[in-house]
């Protein structure tokens, strides 16, 4: 691993807020970004994937009040992966983050602390932290990233825990060669795109983890993942694992299988990982029913 290369990007932080039918919660998420302290050059791109509720009205109201907001109204629904990819093209700052419109930052110093951590660790590709999971009643139902006990830790591909996308602050991809991670995402309607993003960056350089709760994931049955059935969640996770496995030249097969697949599935899926190339593996998944779930697009 080597330090990130100097690249022709501007100083500052861009937060991309991706939204679809989040009218009731978007204001909370945007305000949690706009009230971040000590962040120079903060920009907010809020992009709506053709919502059918009042999401765009909230966007117009918030953008009129704060010049840091760039509001984008998609004329047609792009779907989750395409929406993320199009938004990322607009980033020109040194650091960037994604936030779904129904999630929010719970610590006003989150971005500042992550920028400082990445400045301390030029060998790291992104920074992340613990994330609270809360249900529709606002009750805490879990903590993502609770495996790490150190106050600050530099972790490689296999040492890093799963981190929620609301917790991550990435370096601009130009630091590692523009376009390096798009291939991780080009696998159809991957509603688990954020797992691919984590491992695309970890494949280039380690991450730095802060042992602090600084964001909230709304697991309320209305989000892109929480609204799925358990079967859809499992199939989507397997699909992205196989994509990551192929894109990393099968160097982390054992780790991916052990970390993410239930014990009952490991033996059955072992030969899929080891013996088949990408095209054959997806063909087998089609036969086994892995594509029964309809494309989810931007339906969050």
Write the layout of secondary structure elements.
Elements: E1 10-19, H1 26-34, E2 42-48, H2 55-65, E3 69-73, H3 80-88, E4 93-100, E5 104-105, H4 110-120, E6 126-134, E7 140-144, E8 152-155, E9 169-171, H5 182-185, H6 193-202, E10 207-218, H7 230-247, H8 253-260, H9 263-275, H10 278-288
Parallel strand pairs: 1-2, 1-4, 2-3, 6-10
Antiparallel strand pairs: 4-9, 5-10, 6-7, 6-9, 8-10
Helix pairs in contact: 6-7, 7-8, 7-10
Task: Explain the overall architecture.
It is a single chain. With 300 residues, this protein is of the alpha/beta class. It folds into 2 domains: 10-218, Spore Coat Polysaccharide Biosynthesis Protein SpsA, Chain A (Alpha-Beta Complex), CATH 3.90.550; 230-288, no CATH class. 35% of the residues lie in helices and 22% in strands. The chain is built from 10 helices and 10 strands. It has helices at residues 26-34, 55-65, 80-88, 110-120, 182-185, 193-202, 230-247, 253-260, 263-275, 278-288; strands spanning 10-19, 42-48, 69-73, 93-100, 104-105, 126-134, 140-144, 152-155, 169-171, 207-218. Strands 1, 2, 3, 4, 5, 6, 7, 8, 9 and 10 form a 10-stranded mixed β-sheet that branches. A hairpin with a 5-residue loop joins β6 and β7 (140-144). α6 packs parallel to α7. The two termini are 36 Å apart. Mean pLDDT is 81; it is low at 267-300.
What attributes does this structure have?
10 helices, Spore Coat Polysaccharide Biosynthesis Protein SpsA, Chain A, ten-stranded mixed β-sheet
| Derived structural class | alpha/beta
Strand tally: 10
CATH architecture of the largest domain: Alpha-Beta Complex
Mean pLDDT: 81
Low-confidence stretches: 267-300
Per the principal axes of the C-alpha atoms, what is the gross shape?
A: globular
Helix content: 25-40%
By CATH, the superfamily of the largest domain comes out as Spore Coat Polysaccharide Biosynthesis Protein SpsA, Chain A
Computed Rg: 19 Å
Number of helices: 10
CATH topology of the largest domain: Spore Coat Polysaccharide Biosynthesis Protein SpsA, Chain A
- CATH top-level class of the largest domain: Alpha Beta
Number of domains: 2
Report the sheet with the most strands, covering strand number, pairing sense and barrel closure.
10 strands, mixed
- How far apart the termini lie comes to 36 Å
Note the beta-strand portion: 15-25%
